[in-house]
Structure prediction request, 145 residues.
Amino acid sequence: MTNSQTHLTGFMIVFMIAVYILKEYGFVEMLTVEIIIYSFVAGSIFSVLPDVDHPNSKVRKKTATLMLIGIISLVILFFVSDDRIYLFGVIFLAIILVGLWCVRHRGVLHTVPAGIFLAFPFFIYNPVVGAFALLGFLLHLVMDV
Ligand SMILES: [Zn+2]
Prediction:
């Protein structure tokens, strides 16, 4: 397994080259400082995201911790507000958390369709950010080979 530092380093190098090429070919107006920062953050996360299917990976441990914090927060919000929408959030996060235990390492989360599916919300937000998120994901798959 290529470790997360290697994946991140690989993404950073490709990111700098891609931003340089986009600027050289006149896409300067697409690349505001804000978009560059969001693209970098999204791409960095996506460059380690596929290893969320590995039980001992850092990204898996951080994701599980964040989801548990999310579930606890939603349960508290449910009791405070008595709004059922928070229970749906708890169920949604619990399904993802249990799903993570069931996926095989380098299984479905190490595929191009998974990358497209996960990056899709970022494409809706901004196509450049979505493209860099997908780039980070695809780079991970290439570096794993
Ligand atoms: Zn991997």
Notes: The helical segments are 4-24, 33-48, 58-81, 85-102, 112-125, 127-144. The first helix runs from residue 4 to 24. DSSP finds six helices and no strands in the chain.
